[in-house]
Amino acid sequence: MHFPKFFSIIFILQILVFGFCESHKCAKPYKTIHVCQRGDKTFKTIQSAIDTVPPGNSQWIRIRISPGVYKEKVTIDNTKRCIFLHGAGRNSTTIQWGDFGSAKHTATVEISGNNTLVKGITFENTHNTRDSENVTQAVAVRVHADKCAFINCGFIGVQDTLYDSIGRHYYHNCYIQGATDFIFGSGRSIFKGCKIYFSNGLGPPKKGVITANERESEDDPSAFVFNKCKINGEGGKTNLGRALTSGNPRVIIAKSFFADVIRTEGWAEKDFFKGHEENITFVEERCRGPGSDLTGRVAWINKLKKSEIKKFVDISFIDNDGWIANLPVKGIK
């Protein structure tokens, strides 16, 4: 699940070449495409609708997806921008697939196109189940693009559910379910008002982990920020996160509710961090609930000043150039 620095450079070049979908071009959708599994005048699959978006598109195209379970693997490649996937609600529109193996190639939905907006859709990788004997990497969504937002969406899996790979992302009022490392990557992302559900599909001997952040260096501006979220679950207890690489992982959880599903130590670390815990930034700020008691937490948990916390939870952490205000939906901050 480690993302090499070489590919980070490639990603930056991609933004420079393809990332010109700015506010004066991305306004209200100028075109709507319909997807429905029944009917002769609509697309039957989501991918076939996406394929009609021209490379280098610079105006919002809305793809309205009717209720149903769409069993397909979907890709938005890096030439397709300003796509608005609009479902009928996360309990009504679902995209399912069951690939497994490498985290970079198993996603039910792969998003590599900048300026992607998704509303009212659940993404699910069906490979692992609670009764699986050999749980493996099986990604529901991989977000490898800049300026992407998910509103009222669902992400369901067991291991590596949401690969928040790289770029600036906003998750608002979403549901994310898994058992181990089920929110991972090196994105610069805010999760606001989301429900995080630990569903232990690993069996009693295994420890669950919610986040596995891959921030690479002290100069890397990325972080996972959870603001006003709810964490609950079933089947055991979990850690809030762990250090997945030998870089500088950073996770901030603020003003959130923890049910009694959090292990006493709260956080885990790999052996390569022992003696170098100063490189880790794991923060719990003003959280509540039976799982939020800091007594017994790892000794190296961080304390940040209020001004520092505000810098992360404020929308400007990911929205320094105003891209969220230019999304074709209102009132999501």
Characterization of the model:
There is one protein chain. The protein contains 3 helices and 26 strands. It has a 10-stranded parallel beta sheet with strand order 1-2-5-8-11-14-17-20-23-26. An 8-stranded parallel beta sheet has the order 3-6-9-12-15-18-21-24, with no helix packed on it. It is globular. It is mainly beta. Helix 2 links the parallel strand 1 (31-35) and strand 2 (61-65). Residues 2-20 have low confidence and may be disordered. The chain has a single domain, classed as Pectate Lyase C-like, CATH 2.160.20.10. This is Pectinesterase. Pfam families: Pectinesterase.
Topology:
Blueprint: H1 5-18, E1 31-35, H2 46-50, E2 61-65, E3 68-71, E4 74-76, E5 83-86, E6 93-97, E7 109-111, E8 116-119, E9 122-125, E10 141-144, E11 148-151, E12 154-156, E13 162-166, E14 168-172, E15 175-178, E16 180-185, E17 188-192, E18 195-199, E19 208-213, E20 223-227, E21 230-234, E22 238-243, E23 250-254, E24 257-258, E25 267-268, E26 281-285, H3 306-313
Parallel strand pairs: 1-2, 2-5, 3-6, 4-7, 5-8, 6-9, 7-10, 8-11, 9-12, 10-13, 11-14, 12-15, 13-16, 14-17, 15-18, 16-19, 17-20, 18-21, 19-22, 20-23, 21-24, 22-25, 23-26
